[in-house]
């Protein structure tokens, strides 16, 4: 498969370039980054001391030279890349988080023309955790207060994380609710007692934390905690390559990591 990486000079972009270069069934053909990035013109493998012959570019027309684009950038970048994917019939794996409802609708619309995997977390472990949360939420559907806590590195720009939102959605869905209707996004000052049936979120940012998530089910006399901790971004990169291979068999449609791992 010919692979394009968007956000080539980012934390995930670099992990993905390394993973693609190590995959015998994949060839890196395109490396994109934003207009004005100091990385433009550099060889995509230069951070590894490796010559790939692929220079980092901001020319979205280059997407025509890939079977699948893997995008870990920012929502506005992803949506521009996605339009280019539609124009060139290139499949797309989206790992970027922080989309508005309108952005999500644009992804849905694009997936009617090309095959897209869109998931806030590509790791096998997190996707298994989402299934565990569904089971826990069905069993603990009354008498338990649910709180979602996440911690990430100091450079993360969106909160709560896409994964924390997906975890909240898993619980809300198991309870037959919409997350937006029952979420408490933050607390400050005189909040009053906690309401039953809400899902609270709290967020920590600091240092180089790769990504920690815990969902608490707090009852009377007991507490259940379901946690996932990432110690390396490799798991996200490997999951993304798995998603790209999955898309090779699809013409169009919107898929998530539960589909890829099924
Ligand atoms: N689904 C998953 O499994 C995971 C998802 N993520 C998500 O992936 C995204 C990227 O994370 P991370 O790699 O840590 O972030 P980084 O900031 O390290 O990398 C983002 C890259 O995208 C570039 N970029 C920024 N804005 C644009 C734009 N408008 N158009 C094109 N390129 C742009 C950045 O360039 P510059 O630095 O010059 O601005 C940078 O090279 C985040 O949304 C994060 O939440 C992260 C890990 C796992
Ligand atoms: O920005 C990150 O780093 C991560 N973002 C994703 C998210 O928002 O859930 C996935 C992972 O937690 C790392």
UniProtKB/TrEMBL annotation:
Task: Output one GO BP term.
Answer: diaminopimelate biosynthetic process
Q: Does the keyword Flavoprotein apply?
A: no
The protein's annotated pathway: Amino-acid biosynthesis; L-lysine biosynthesis via DAP pathway; (S)-tetrahydrodipicolinate from L-aspartate: step 4/4
**Which parts pass through the membrane?**
none
> What GO cellular-component annotations does this UniProt entry give?
cytosol
A single GO molecular-function term is: oxidoreductase activity, acting on CH or CH2 groups, NAD or NADP as acceptor
Query: Could you tell me which residue ranges the Dihydrodipicolinate reductase N-terminal domain spans?
Result: 1-122
Name the positions where NADP(+) binds: 34
Kindly list the positions annotated as binding (S)-2,3,4,5-tetrahydrodipicolinate.
Answer: 153, 162-163
Q: Which domain of life is it from?
A: Bacteria
**Assembly with partners or alone:** Homotetramer.
Function in brief: Catalyzes the conversion of 4-hydroxy-tetrahydrodipicolinate (HTPA) to tetrahydrodipicolinate.
The family note in this entry says: Belongs to the DapB family.
Protein name as catalogued: 4-hydroxy-tetrahydrodipicolinate reductase
Q: What is the lineage of its organism?
A: Bacteria, Pseudomonadati, Pseudomonadota, Betaproteobacteria, Burkholderiales
